[in-house]
Task: inverse folding
């Protein structure tokens, strides 16, 4: 336990980045500019850093990327501080359970297998994320959902159309649909999730409720769950244990997926 955890009053209210000494504000930035590598490009990189509020920017690395682009790393200080009282985060509101506790909760709460259907949707061919959560080998020392005796997992893999995923979820009578998105150009991950949300609403209309919709990927903001119409957003570093514990919490408590109405509202707002 850290000093700040033991005594929250000891925590500073406003913090700044740390480089060489406490509160010196030192940061390191990396970015690419659409200029051939040379003096003009390096000068533009330093000017860009200055416009971003970096004081005394120092160019510590520069190299060409092909013939028309240049990559830079800039080091310098910022004057900005972060007021911790103004920081909003999504706190985990459920306990992390062991595999045995998850299986026991499913048996006692559902009395049957918990059915999960997962995929990467659209043109996304990156299955590392969805496989880390679903495959038995898992991630970071945690076994994937296939390892749990109380779960039946259907992993559809990559580049699955949203309508195909929604229909398969209906065929499998899924309790939860898991989507991993690594392709995010032009906010493709947000578009795909909104389209999937609408498809699930449509194909499950006669059921009165749709499965839980859980999404994850490095560019998702956990605070966007309601806006996207999903039940949960997981970000970087999520383990299968996190997801399994959430599914048990959400499904065995007898809750109706709160994102159903949010999805409809989200779809109406985009028309």
Result:
């Amino acid at each position: 336990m850290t000093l700040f955890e033991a005594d929250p009053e000891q925590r500073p209210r406003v913090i700044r980045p740390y480089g060489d000494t406490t509160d010196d504000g030192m940061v390191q930035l990396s970015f690419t500019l659409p200029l051939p590598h040379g003096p003009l490009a390096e000068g533009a990189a330093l000017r860009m850093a200055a416009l971003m509020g970096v004081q005394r920017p120092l160019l510590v690395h520069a190299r060409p990327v092909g013939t028309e682009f240049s990559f830079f790393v800039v080091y310098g200080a910022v004057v900005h501080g972060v007021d911790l009282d103004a920081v909003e985060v999504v706190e985990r509101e459920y306990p992390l359970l062991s595999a045995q506790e998850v299986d026991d909760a499913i048996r006692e709460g559902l009395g049957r297998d918990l059915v999960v259907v997962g995929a990467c949707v659209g043109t996304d061919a990156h299955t590392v994320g969805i496989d880390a959560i679903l495959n038995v080998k898992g991630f970071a020392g945690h076994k994937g959902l296939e390892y749990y005796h109380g779960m039946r997992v259907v992993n559809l893999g990559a580049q699955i159309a949203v309508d195909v995923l929604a229909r398969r979820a209906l065929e499998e009578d899924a309790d939860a649909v898991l989507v991993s998105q690594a392709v995010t150009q032009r906010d493709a991950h947000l578009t795909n999730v909104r389209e999937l949300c609408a498809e699930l609403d449509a194909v499950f209309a006669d059921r009165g409720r749709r499965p839980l919709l859980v999404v994850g990927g490095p560019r998702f903001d956990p605070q966007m769950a309601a806006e996207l119409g999903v039940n949960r957003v997981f970000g970087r570093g999520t383990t299968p244990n996190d997801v399994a514990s959430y599914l048990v919490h959400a499904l065995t408590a007898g809750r109706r997926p709160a994102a159903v109405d949010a999805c409809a509202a989200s779809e109406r707002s985009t028309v």
About this structure: The mean pLDDT is 86. The radius of gyration is 23 Å.
